[in-house]
Write a structure and sequence with these properties.
Oligomer: single chain
Number of helices: 5
Strand order of the largest sheet: 1-3-2
CATH topology: Zincin-like
Structural class: alpha+beta
Number of strands: 3
Shape: globular
Strand content: 5-15%
Helix content: 40-55%
Number of domains: 1
């Protein structure tokens, strides 16, 4: 396990978000990025909660709270042995959860190497 400070973890999350290609970053809509210690009852690195862009419609997506992408700091750090490992896992998790926002399923992410 490699532990980084809360501040450094948030910097790594920001760096991962800054690394999202501009065309994709501009298409992200109504999403809050949250960092929490660990998932309740699980060993998730991240979790997307919301309505993917592919499921949104004018009549079915009005006045809703933002979607959430939660990154679980302790869970990510528990599988890492260096800050570089944490950085790589944060980036992979951010991309994985943003992909869910775009409607990409877990099986497809496995095929693409992002699961």
């Amino acid at each position: 396990m490699f532990i980084v400070t809360d501040e450094r973890f948030e910097e790594l999350v920001s760096e991962a978000l800054d690394g999202v290609p501009p065309q994709l970053a501009e298409a992200i809509d109504n999403v809050a990025i949250i960092v929490e210690r660990e998932a309740n009852g699980g060993s998730l690195f991240g979790l997307y909660e919301g309505v993917p862009l592919t499921k949104r419609g004018f009549l079915s997506y009005n006045g809703v709270l933002p979607d959430r992408i939660t990154l679980y700091q302790t869970t990510i750090c528990s599988r890492c042995f260096s800050e570089e490992d944490v950085k790589v896992q944060v980036r992979k998790t951010v991309i994985h959860e943003i992909a869910h926002h775009f409607g990409i399923s877990d099986p497809r992410l496995v095929e693409l190497g992002w699961a």
